[in-house]
Design goal:
about 325 residues, alpha/beta, Arc Repressor Mutant, subunit A, D-Maltodextrin-Binding Protein, domain 2, 3 domains, 8-stranded mixed β-sheet
Length: about 325
Amino acid sequence: MSVNKAAGTFELRHLRYFVTLAEERNFSRAAERLGIAQPGLSQQILNLEALLGTPLLDRSRRSVQLTLSGQVFLQEARKTLAQADAALAAVRRAGRGETGRISIGYVASAAYAGVLTASLAGFRATHPEVELQLTEMEMGLQLAAIAGGTLDFGYIRPPVAVPDGVVTICVLREPLVVALGAAHTLAGRDAIPLSGLREETFIAPRQAADVGFHHNAVAACRESGFEPKISATGRDFTTIASMVAVGLGVALVPRSLTCLQLPGLVYRPVTGSTTTSVLAVAYRRSELAPAVRAFIRHHHRAAPSGPGEAGLDA
């Protein structure tokens, strides 16, 4: 069916007017439902017919009756209005951050700590239509990808150098415990003074001495008055735990990692140090994507108060 462009502009309101009239079968009731004057509705229907180049109403009868063209147009108009309403609703959901996609990087210890699963489950409960893409990734790579725009969000273990434009907030702060072999002479104690481990070989993650858990281990030992002997490193905590279990050394780890159990491995609280391990999230300060902004706000609400928190540009 062709549209007579000379008769004016075809708009969605024409469809709404026509569908309402067809449902009410009366100009007065339709005009009242639409909140417009009856003469105005009559003129809009005439304009619509002129635009379409065919009559939609059978005006030979006193009541409102549709022509065959009107019946066909009514079916198509309802489909069009439903699609338009669905499109508006989808756009509004996206604008509120209720739909979209978020790419998320994480270090394995975030999963051990339970923060990753709890955060994602809580967000999914309120934003079920947002797609979450997860990738385990070393935190330096996470931060570079966030700064470069190829990753939206990351779970990291500070301290670590943070690129310009990327901010972090602390979501968990936990004490350190010592992992040691079950045959170790101190394994039978309920708690172990950290200073009593000064002669031990410490196993640390394979990272720079001023980064993450490696930094935490050095800081805790220095707080207890000695410089740790770190002569072995592991790629991840499963490797470190295995090395400890076979007697190659001891390791200072966040308390949440006690969930990683291996034969011959025990964990004990330490005394003499207040050093803690921080789990943080990282994101772009100038983030624009509504879904990612909603994810950031979700973490701000759950984050403990205190230093290390950062904001999000409006």
